[in-house]
Amino acid sequence: MTTSAQSGRSTDGGVVRKLPDAPARRWAKTDATQQRILDAATEVFGAKGFTAATIADVVAGSGASIGSIYHHFGGKKELYLAIFERMADDIGRRIDQAAETTGELDGPRAFETQVRAYLDAMWLNRRAAIVLASGDAPAGFDRIRRNSMLSSFRRWISVLDLDAASPRDQLLTRILVAIMAESALMVTMCDDAAGAEPIIDATIEWIYRLTG
Which domains does the chain have, with CATH numbers? Predict the structure, then answer.
């Protein structure tokens, strides 16, 4: 997941791919009003679910006008995708930064660095991640999330130089993807970083057992 740090990319817990028809944004530099709207939308979707939530709820939570929300994002579906986009941008940026330090590392160590950066970023983005993993989402979102997750995880795994034609290595790739996905889910449920750290360490331990 070492791509440029810009939005319009999708993630599932760590995935960074361009979303269909997503506007190009740099979320780290997005103005305070847009950030406030997205923070409020994340809280509203988390509390009520995507289906039951309304734009009026987001208006009440953000203090922004309904016109401002439609101007910056559009409707409820676009707000949901923008939460996804913003999380992807932050995760991608953190993994890019981590990847810059892996030049002299062998494949397993480079993979470890990326996995740690991913799981750290998932914990930092846990509120959005929980909303996005709830299953109450716009039509088609689960497919986008699943495909982008697989694409990014397999890109990270490529540093291990596994043989794509080998049934053994094909199975290992699937196992590693499953471990990272489940670890991300566990990390997002932690209340503090101290609780997440043993999960991250255990994830790395299992990866080394499988790839060593």
Answer: 9-211 (1.10.357.10)
